[in-house]
Design a protein that fits this description.
Length: 225
């Protein structure tokens, strides 16, 4: 899974990042609420782990802003505030789980992986649709405005990935990992080449494009530019 840790305590963050990485997860880190909010909004994550007391922006305020923006990524809040009232506040703010400090790393890992599994039904949906663009994962077909699209296998996988993450910015590195199974950026323009081909098939001839370039960041598939 791809996990974002928003934690201002350097020692705690390093410990969690090390443990999650050893468990096979890809981990990003933000040390304050503002940068954490920006990262969570600009990239696609499977789970967010958010410390409640953060500099710049409180953890619960961060979660509320994400939910208000339509971001439904599962959130685990970490906090030294342990009473029932504080836990209820966290859940009402939009958190999916609340873990009190100090905690055992094994429990933290189990809770994170449970939240990741909770997302699985969305991931395995057999039919994806964005506006008039429809992709059938079982039949391996795609169409726009009911007109079939002729896609190569890699183009189909790329479109499938982008539709699964509708409205989210996907960096070139993320697309390489998800579509080509590359674990690093080999300085290739393969993503850009395939995006260009996909645009010709998906957007050409339509007044409203669905595939958008986010300058300096990557690509996004959405109805709005």
């Amino acid at each position: 899974m791809r996990i974002l840790i928003i934690e201002d305590d350097k020692r705690t963050a390093e410990h969690v990042i090390k443990g999650l990485s050893e468990a096979g997860h890809v981990v990003d880190h933000a040390a304050d609420g503002v940068s954490g909010l920006n990262l969570a909004g600009a990239s696609s994550y499977d789970v967010l782990v958010v410390d409640r007391m953060l500099p710049g922006k409180d953890g619960l305020a961060l979660v509320e802003l994400l939910r208000a923006a339509g971001n439904q990524t599962p959130v685990l809040v970490l906090s030294a505030l342990a009473d029932v009232g504080h836990r209820v506040e966290g859940l009402k703010a939009g958190a999916d789980d609340y873990l009190v400090k100090p905690y055992a790393f094994s429990e933290l890992l189990a809770r994170i992986e449970a939240l990741g599994r909770r997302r699985d039904p969305e991931v395995v949906a057999t039919r994806l649709q964005v506006d008039d663009l429809v992709l059938d994962r079982l039949a391996r077909t795609a169409s726009r405005n009911a007109k079939p699209l002729t896609l190569q296998p890699r183009e189909f996988k790329l479109l499938e990935c982008m539709m699964q993450h509708e409205g989210q910015v996907l960096t070139r590195t993320m697309l390489l990992e998800k579509v080509w199974d590359y674990q690093f950026d080999p300085h290739t323009n393969v993503v850009d080449v395939h995006i260009a081909r996909l645009r010709q098939k998906v957007d050409r001839g339509y007044e409203r494009p669905l595939i958008h370039t986010v300058r300096g960041a990557g690509y996004r598939l959405s109805v709005d530019p």
